Amino acid sequence: MQPYKRGGRFYNNKHDSILRRLKNFSWSFFYIRGHHFLSLLKKQRALANTCSLPHSCTSKTQTHSLELLPKAGPELVITWLGHSTFLIQVAGINIVTDPIFFGKFPILSRKIPMPILPAKLPPIDVVLVSHNHKDHLDIQSLQILSQHKPLFLVPAGNGRWLKRRGYKRVVEKTWWESERIDLSVGDQSITITFLPAIHWTSRGLLDINTTLWGSWLIEASGRKIYFAGDTAYGDHFSMIAKRYGHIDVALMPIGPNEPRRYVLDSHINADEAVRAFIDLRARHFIPMHWGTFARMGAEQHSNPMSLLKLAWDKHSHDLDGAKLHIVACGEARNFGHLLC
User: Fold this and answer.
1) With contact defined as beta carbons under 8 Å apart, do 94 and 72 qualify?
2) pTM higher than 0.85 for the full model?
3) What domains lie within the chain, and their CATH numbers?
4) Residue range 312-323, pLDDT digits in tens
5) Within 13 Å of residue 145, how many CA atoms lie on the same side as its CB?
């Protein structure tokens, strides 16, 4: 599986097009503001009433306020900072994914605040970007991270955009390409590989699909951590498992689920996320891309989590002892003893 490129732009396949992306986006926009939205909300409220959710998933704040994050050490510690932003601490280094600390957009407002002041983040060594949509690549957040002088690993086409803004340590990757990072202790290293996804990109109307999108795999201290980015469901999950074996921890998006007709070819829903997790032969599931903003797609806050709980029960016979970790924003999960 390699990126399909035509006329200087990336596509998921030969049938994909810019017009298709614009059509789905515009129809989704009008759907959310139309009469269909009210009937959908009624169904979602009924669904939420049938699912028993942890308090952290239904709380209006759903945030663990942090004064200080743990120091990076030999164990694997993962902290959800909201949306698709994680602090991954492994092998003594700090990695941040898809940084978005603020979330003040014309159509997006952050419902769950950043659990720690960005200035109090530990020294960041690596920043991973899955694609350039504004809810995954935020300029204000990048400016804060640049003070740490991290290595920015980005999809093909994004390097020039970042370097024009003064970022020095930027490395572009296309699918299946890896970056080895040598550690200061002994002769140890970690490997970070850019992997396929099914999505699209743009910062505006004129640059649609001029940059690539994808997912990331971190291999460190004998552990494999998969960060799915944004993606639709496809056979790339089973292909990744075939090449790399089982995944220890998978960070998986679970929304938006609605309007399904218009997000089908760019986002997995909760049920597909569980199926993808099974395809990856993964052991630990941490959900992301839900609940952080006031609205993503046509969903209320807890709907993706309600659907995830149902999907987890539905596919329990295929999960073979895998564990679902529902973490609150700001909650750190130490996998040191869980992966022994």
Assistant:
1) yes
2) yes
3) 17-334 (3.60.15.10)
4) 999 999 998 999
5) 30
